[in-house]
Design goal:
about 625 residues, alpha+beta, six-stranded mixed sheet, 22 helices
């Protein structure tokens, strides 16, 4: 097992995948009919490139999904990925259009009196520009007269500079977003952005070849584009349910849904079109309550409540429901049924997990025993293509109970490497563990192989046979997954064991994102980078006097970097005081400028011990975008 190429499916995996075919109604073509409805055409150029000529999206990368599903993929995920691979411009109803298949998400275009309102301009600018060009090629060169972000995840705003410029926004093109959008958009991508981006490489299978033995989709869409992530701050804040806005003659009624799929999110009803945009609150899959890349735990109880509210507010006046992923649902009865089943899905996950934890069950026990009701089990849109019942129930447990399952044996366990060394020694050494694990592999017990051989890898990461066996076992688990991110995680683990780390291909902490941070957030982001143990004995106070603004007192003490605005007991007396413009202060805090250089250029004035400032900067660490995942 020393090969580095993908293997074929083992007999047990092939048999399990074949059983999926018999279990679900694959002859039901209603989703495919909806996914193709209103098709107007697609881009003549299949490769979307950045300014340097690099390919950031390939429209035909998933053409292989038109073939029959092989043994190396779960037929249900293959079906979902096939539906998500439909790309082009689609008419939802007259005046509402979607470009789908140009990124993980959809871009929606609403035609107004003079131009168009663009909703959720994808993850990066290049695919967004291509999507807009496709629309204009079919519907005319209409100007963008408004932009709307439905929520605070980057795949719904990152391509904004591909559809509108900052100058156009300054000249009056409104950018609408839910209350709290900017705070959450930048906070998520900056504070824990390095770790999230590294794990996102696994979640979306960034390094995997697209094909039957590699990446076949992410369930929510194909994958993420790799172009320029941008952000133009909103100019119109949607603060309440029932708020109405009219942009270029387009009437909108909003429903705020904070704490559902995103901390800041909204749904939109278009009364003149009898159309309802559900953002990412109701899509054709079970969504995540906690994404595998990492995020704050989402609240399924509130999520379900807001779906009930959406039905009450808009169900009787909506002939179509569409979202920023997947395909629309047409027909008033079908819309209400779809929203009701989506509501029941999140409510059931919440209520039954809480019931089970109150019976003393642990997260692993709940995840293993949890079953959906038959009606939801049969509904294609309730399948775990992106979120899964397994990791969503664990998220509900985490929300209420935290990481600890109550067993004191789990209260003070050894960390992975130390535990692995002890396990491997107990089991007779690395070679013996691998020998027995290989026998389990031959028996088709891949789940156990992965769990056991992981100990060998953390005890002896260079053990060649363990790396090869673990890669093969992870690969087989990936082949059997209905969940897109699970498949990608397993196959990425196999890939990195065979080929080495791929790092972080897509970085969302772009210049636009950084510039959108408030000064408060910038100081918070700096505090996260302090190397606590190295700075235990330091006591440094720096006061920043922002010209035309506030005084910010920053102090490093006990390994903690705190800041307060203004003077007072908490501010204390400074070791050094710096007078500086806000733009230059931002550059200093982001590492783009050195205070000494600014002083030499006459752009900053320093009073006191400048060496203290240099000492403080020396205590800052740099995050590692290439940290190990499947090895220590």
């Amino acid at each position: 097992m020393s090969h580095s190429e993908p293997r074929s499916a083992e007999p047990g995996i092939a048999a399990n995948n074949e059983a999926v075919r018999a279990r679900f109604p694959f002859d039901d073509t209603s989703d495919l009919d909806d996914a193709r409805r209103g098709y107007l055409g697609t881009a003549p150029e299949t490769l979307i490139r950045d300014a340097d000529g690099g390919v950031v999206w390939d429209l035909e990368a998933y053409g292989f999904l038109a073939e029959e599903c092989p043994d190396t993929a779960n037929p249900s995920l293959w079906r979902q990925s096939r539906l998500c691979s439909e790309h082009g411009l689609f008419e939802v109803v007259e005046g509402i259009y979607q470009v789908r298949g140009f990124d993980l998400s959809n871009m929606t275009v609403i035609e107004g009196d003079r131009g168009i309102l663009v909703i959720d301009p994808l993850l990066s600018a290049e695919p967004a520009a291509a999507a807009l060009a496709l629309y204009r090629g079919h519907r005319g060169d209409r100007p963008v007269t408004g932009v709307l972000y439905t929520h605070s995840h980057a795949d719904h705003f990152g391509g904004v500079r591909g559809v509108v410029t900052e100058q156009e926004v300054a000249a009056g093109v409104p950018v609408l977003a839910p209350h709290g959008f900017l705070t959450h958009a930048v906070k998520e991508n900056i504070y824990a952005g390095t770790a999230m981006a590294r794990r996102a490489a696994y979640m979306y299978g960034a390094a995997l070849v697209k094909g039957p033995q590699g990446q076949i989709g992410a369930g929510l869409g194909p994958t993420t584009s790799t172009g320029t992530v941008s952000l133009i701050p909103p100019t119109v804040d949607v603060t309440r349910t029932g708020q109405t806005e009219t942009v270029d003659g387009i009437r909108m009624v909003f429903q705020l849904t904070p704490g559902t799929e995103a901390p800041a999110e909204l749904n939109i009803h278009f009364p003149d079109h009898a159309a309802l945009c559900m953002a990412e609150n109701a899509t054709h899959n079970l969504h995540n309550l906690l994404t595998l890349r990492g995020a704050e735990v989402r609240d399924p109880h509130e999520w379900a409540r807001y779906l009930t509210e959406a039905i009450d507010l808009f169900g009787a006046t909506s002939d179509v429901a569409f979202a920023s992923h997947h395909w629309p649902t047409w027909g008033r009865e079908r819309v209400v049924a779809f929203l009701s089943e989506q509501r029941d899905l999140y409510a059931y996950l919440h209520d039954q997990t809480v019931r089970m934890l109150n019976e003393g069950m642990t997260p692993l026990e709940i995840a293993e025993q949890f079953e959906l009701p038959p009606t939801l089990e049969k509904a294609w849109h309730a399948h775990g293509y992106y979120g899964s019942v397994s990791h969503n129930t664990k998220a509900v447990y985490q929300k209420y109970m935290g990481w600890f399952d109550g067993n004191p044996a789990h209260l003070w366990e050894h960390p992975p490497v130390e535990a692995a060394r002890r396990y491997v020694a107990f089991m007779g050494g690395a070679d013996e563990v691998v020998r027995q694990a290989r026998a389990c592999f031959d028996d088709g017990d891949f789940r156990w192989v992965v769990q056991v051989v992981n100990h060998v890898l953390f005890a002896q990461p260079d053990h060649a046979q363990a790396r090869a066996l673990q890669a093969d076992a992870l690969e087989q688990l990936g082949y059997g997954c209905e969940n897109g991110p699970w498949r990608n995680f397993y196959l990425m683990g196999a890939y990195e064991l065979r080929h080495g780390s791929v790092g972080t291909p897509t970085v969302t902490a772009s210049p636009d994102m950084l510039s959108a941070l408030t000064l408060e957030q910038l100081f918070d982001a700096l505090a996260i980078r302090v190397d606590g143990p190295r700075s235990w004995n330091a006591d440094i106070a720096v006061h920043w006097c922002v010209r035309g603004g506030d005084r910010v007192a920053m102090r490093l003490c006990n390994g903690v970097l705190t800041h307060v605005v203004g003077r007072g007991p908490a501010a204390g007396e400074p070791d050094v005081e710096v007078s500086i413009d806000e733009a230059d202060l931002r550059a200093v805090l982001l590492g783009g400028a050195a205070p000494g250089e600014l002083v030499e250029q006459g752009r900053a004035e320093v009073v006191g011990d400048a060496g203290k400032l240099a000492e403080l900067v020396g205590y800052l660490s740099q995050p590692d975008p290439d940290f190990a995942i499947v090895t220590p």
